[in-house]
């Protein structure tokens, strides 16, 4: 006989992306700042990729994947330091008076 699992399973407990959901306004603002910075870095890379062409030093798929991982880590680090001020402005605008 098969026993029932005692702990509930929720496949979307951490959201569709698999990352933990923010618990408060500060965490949400920081995640937004990281997402904004990641998008900005990605668009900047597209511009440099256009000039590099197919024979560029970073034109391989592996190099692009590593560069994307680096950009993700850089965006997270910059957002955790609140270096651009985007999170601070969001917190200031969205917090209850």
Question: Would you give an account of this structure?
Answer:
With 97 residues, the protein is mostly helical. The chain has one domain. It has helices at 25-52, 61-81, 86-94. Helix 1 (25-52) runs antiparallel to helix 2 (61-81) and helix 1 packs antiparallel against helix 3 (86-94). The chain is elongated, with a radius of gyration of 19 Å. The termini are far apart. The model has no long low-confidence stretch (mean pLDDT 78).
Q: Helix- and strand-based class?
A: mainly alpha
Per DSSP E runs of 2 or more residues, the count of β-strands stands at 0
Q: How would a textbook summarize the main sheet?
A: none
Share of residues in helices? 55-70%
Question: Poorly predicted ranges (pLDDT <50, ≥5 residues)?
Answer: none
The secondary-structure element order is HHH
Strand content: under 5%
State the end-to-end CA separation: 58 Å
Descriptive tags:
single chain; 97 residues; mainly alpha; 3 helices; elongated
Secondary-structure map:
Blueprint: H1 25-52, H2 61-81, H3 86-94
Helix pairs in contact: 1-2, 1-3
Summarize the structure.
By secondary structure, the protein is an all-alpha fold. It has helices at 25-52, 61-81, 86-94. The protein has three helices and no strands.
